[in-house]
Structure formats: structure tokens, C-alpha cells
Amino acid sequence: MNASTEHWQVHKRAVSSAGGVVAAQHHLAARAGAGMLAAGGNAVDAAVAAAFALAAVEPWMCGLGGSGFAVIWMAGARRARVIDFQGVLPAAISPADYPLDPDVPDTIMGFPGVVDRANVIGARSVTVPGAVAGLSHALERFGTLGLDTVLGPAIALARRGLPVDWFTTLQIALSATDLARDATAAAIYLPGGHPPQPERFLPMGALPDTLQALAEGGPEAFYRGAIGAALAGDLAAAGSRITEDDLAAYRAVEHDTLTGHHRGAELHTAGETSGGPRLISFLSHVAAHLQPADAPDAETWLVYAEALDLAWREHRARIGRATETGGCTSHLSAVDAAGNMVALTYTLLNRFGSCFVSPATGILLNNAVSYFDPRPGYPTTMAGGKRINASNMCPTIAVRDGEARFAIGASGANFIMPCTAQIAALMLDFGLDLERAMNHPRIDASDRGSVRADPRLGEAVLAALGARYRLEVAQRLVFPKLYACPSGVARDPATGICAGLNDPSQPIGGAAGAGPFTLDDGPEPAEARP
Questions:
Q1: Each residue of 443-462: pLDDT tens digit?
Q2: What DSSP state is assigned to residue 76?
Q3: How many CA atoms lie within 13 A of 62 on its CB side?
Q4: 286, 359, 453, 499 - which has most CB atoms within 10 Å?
Q5: Residue 201: which region, alpha, beta or left (left: phi > 0; alpha: psi -120 to 50)?
Q6: By C-alpha distance, which of 252, 64, 93 is closest to 151?
Q7: Which residue, 267, 302, 301, is CA-closest to 284?
Q8: How confident is the model at residue 526, as a pLDDT?
């Protein structure tokens, strides 16, 4: 089989627990969430704790300076809700601040490049971040523990410092040139002017104190208090138009889910501005054109490829432009013993976002201004107060007979929806459990003129796809992530046993069952380093 391709056989076992499970792109964040389950919290408490912890262990993907979506299923109410905490442009922003430069490459959203890449790198690329508002809103509405408790693991992790292993060094090295442009970012992530050597912890500047202040003052401190004032001051000094008034005006939005149906299950997704419409379109085409056999076969993958291409064609016609071709995001999922579930995706957009760190707060900021067109006169043209209105993020919860069965999602820009949709389809079309579905080889298609396929699908599938499409054969790798990076949880209503796991090719990802949170033994803490 494909003698010219080297094959890796990597398999992750699911973590199972009757007390609930959290799955995330960093195992320490998963453990932070699981600690809330052990402390008597529910899936929402666990998800919020894990999300905040990611700011200290996976800062290149997300954090207090990011934005995103959460889909929440509350078992008692038998109801799903969405919390939209996408970023918002500052009121005073103007396309005139971003003059076009034909010598600068297009942004990952396909918009023209501007002078000094100001819509991609630095303080002028930052939108008002929604993460603190969204996570706090989720906790206040649906959680059971206080913000000070839920932030405990994140504070402890941030005070110890960023754990550096080879994967952390890789992520920093990939963005080193842009990180070097900002003095505070360089001081944290490029000690001595270079990506750090593994087996150490990096001090995270003012971030630990900011997390502590957030635990004490709540979201008010971030949007209308001392944290916000310091953040706005740092942004203004670096050229951003974000003001304290912009922060004070920010609100997370709670609304009903966008819901589709497949094989007797309801699929609750994040709404019209997410990847949800494409997922529902995919499943509709699959339901109309595939009668599942005992196991996925060549016909299965042909139908899945057709459905993905169609969903992307409809999406591009709907929004009138291309979508992001890169980007760095984090997804986590959580379930508790009562059957509550959370699927939460949030992002800084690019790896390390704007590569701008607020000196007074230690917060790494997003670069979501690049979501908007710098040219006047387009539907996507930047305008004061405009909210991000198109995203690939696709957090999804499946419910059957009134009980949530699984919560899934992924990171990986254009790869997110194809990945999430296929895992859902494999579970619903063929009855695969979460472990088998997450480990199963997949394809990727987005109406780009080709289909990518994992060689583990086998010669018959590859031959069938190759006869109809221009075929790219590519195995699942640590980097680049050609098939996205999913995290999922599931629960069997008959037994109450919960399961969870993260992408098998994500070396630092993991899942954790309910249990007390403690810091790992490891290299010398950051505070002890000279």
C-alpha cells in the first residue's frame, strides 16, 4: 500500500470515568477541568477551568486575549445554548488606518495585505477580546462554582510558568520572527533572543497577577476596572484604537443553537456565523445519499467527499468570499456525571495572535482585525463596533432521546468542519464509539479542487477517490495538522460511563477523568530561575 509513503501507526485510548471527563489540546488543561469535577462542579465549571488554564499552557492558540464560541447542554433542562464571545472592532477603527500594500501577502482570510502587516501583527491588529466575558457568562449562567475557584488551576500554572517541551519550542520557533517585534513578547517567549530549550518553565510576565486580579474582581475588573484600564493603556501606547469605552461596551451573546438532525440525533452547533451550517449541510447530503453498511467503505468516503465539497460551495456563495486558510485555535470538550456537556472553541486566530503582549497585564492579544476587509464598500469591510461574523469554529453536541451522547469540535481553520463532521458521521452512521471515531483515518475536502486522504483508509478507498478527484495522499502528522486537531467526550446513558480523548497526533493533548488537580513534578519553577 502506497510504498512511497512512510506510515505512522499512532493510537490513543480514551479516558473513561463515571465522574465525567475533560478533553483538551493540553493535558494539563484537561486535568485543570477534571479538578473542578472532583470538587463538585459540573461540566461548565470544568470547561471554563480548562479554557482559562490553556492561557498558561497553550498560549499560542488562545487565552484571555481571544474569542470564540461555547455550546452547552444542560441535562436537567434538556436544552442547548450557545455563548458567542467573538471579538469586536474598536469604535474608532477606520480602513484609512490600514493602507493597502501590494507587496504584502494576503491575510489568512484572503484580504489584501496592508502596510507593515498592521492588520495581522501588532496592537493595531487586535479586536476587543471576548474570552473573559464569554467564559464568565457561561460560569454565571450554568456553572456551580465561583470564578475564584475555577481560576485556581490557571493561576497555579501561570505562576509556575509556561512548560517548555519540544512541541512548545516548535510553536515558538514558528512565530519567532513576529514575536521578536514586540519587546514584551520577546522577553517571555524568546529568552536570550532565541526559542527556548525544552525542560524548563518560562516566566509569563504579569499574567499570573492578572489572573489573580480576575479571580478577585471578576469580569468587571477586565472590562470596566483596573485590568481593562491597564490593557487599554498598553494598546493605545502601541497604536491600537481600542479604548476603555470599547472594553466596557463588550458583551457576550447567548442564543439558541443552530440544530440539525441525523440518524435520529439532534446536532446542536454554534450558529449561522460558525462552521455549523456547513456541518448540517454535510450531514443532510450524507443522509440523502448514503445507506450505511456494516463499516465505512469506498462509497462512504465518496459520499463524504461530495458532501464536504457541496457544503463549502454553499458556504462561499453565502458569504461571498473565501475563508481562512491558516489559523490557530483550541478546542475542548467536557461531560459530567449528570450528562451535562460543553463543546468550546476559542482562538487568537493566528499562532500567537498579534504577537503583542500587554506589558502591564501579560495578556497575549488576538489579531482578529484580519477577519475584516481593509477596503471600503464590501459587506466584510471593517467598521467601528462590528463583530466577527464568519468563522470555521464548529463546537457541536449530539443529543438522542433527550440525552447528550457526545460533544466534539476541533482546531485547524478550514480543516475544522470536515474533521468535526466526519467524526459525528462515523459515530452516527456506523455506531463507532468515540475512541474508534477519533482514531479513524479521514479525508479533507473544501471545494478546493482536490481531496486529501489518509493512506490508512486503504487502497480500495484511495483508488475510488482518485478516480473522481485530484487526490492528495497524506498521513496524519504532528505538524502540519492536515486533518485538524479534535477533542471529544461522550457518555453512555445506560451505564453513565463517560469517555474522552484528544487528537491522537497531538503530543501534548489529553483527557482526564474527575480527580484533584495538582501540579506535575517537572523542571525548576520559573520563580526559582535567576
A1: 999 999 999 999 999 999 99
A2: T
A3: 30
A4: 453
A5: beta
A6: 64
A7: 267
A8: 44
DSSP secondary structure code for residue 340 in this structure:
-
Active site residue ranges: 329
Residues 6+ apart with CB under 8 A from 526: 159, 160, 161, 162, 201, 202, 203, 204
Residue 107 and residue 85: Cα distance in Å, rounded?
A: 22
Q: Is the pLDDT of residue 530 over 70?
A: no
Residue type, 322: A
Report the side by side order of strands in the sheet with 443-444. Answer: 443-444, 451-453, 471-473
**Could you give the CA distance from residue 373 to residue 371 in angstroms, rounded to a whole number?**
7
Residues 22/54, Cβ–Cβ less than 8 Å: no
Specify whether the CB–CB gap between 20 and 40 falls below 8 A: no
Rounded Cα–Cα distance for residues 146 and 50 (Å): 14
Identify residue 72 by its one-letter amino acid code: I
CA–CA separation, 150 vs 142, rounded Å? 13
Distance CA 262, CA 258 (A): 14
Count of C-beta atoms within a 10 Å radius of residue 215:
19
How does pLDDT run across 401-434, given as a tens digit for each residue?
A: 999 999 999 999 899 999 999 999 999 999 999 9
Q: pLDDT value at position 379? A: 79
Please return the burial class of 70, using the count of CB atoms within 10 Å of its CB with bins 0-12, 13-18 and 19+. buried
Beta strands 258-262 and 200-202: pairing type? unpaired
Reported pTM: 0.95
Residues 95, 382 contacting (CB under 8 angstroms): yes
Q: How many CB atoms lie within 10 A of CB 521?
A: 5
pLDDT tens for 69-122 read: 999 999 999 999 999 999 999 999 998 899 999 999 988 778 899 999 999 999
In the chain, the domains with their CATH numbers are 15-161+204-515 (3.60.20.40)
133-189 residue pLDDT tens: 999 999 999 999 999 999 999 999 999 999 999 999 999 999 999 999 999 999 999
DSSP string, 484-525: -EEEEEEE-TTT--EEEEE-TT-TT-EEEES----PPP-SPP
Bridge-based pairing of strands 485-491 and 471-473 is unpaired
DSSP class per residue in 276-300: HHHHHHHHHHHHHH----SS--HHH
Q: How far is CA 34 from CA 25, 51, 223, 415, 464, in A?
A: 14, 12, 28, 28, 43
Distance CA 305, CA 339 (A): 33
Q: In terms of Cα–Cα distance, which of 81, 51, 115, 99 is closest to 348? A: 51
CB atoms within 10 A of CB 291: 8
| pLDDT tops 60 at residue 326 | no
Separation of first and last alpha carbons in the chain: 54
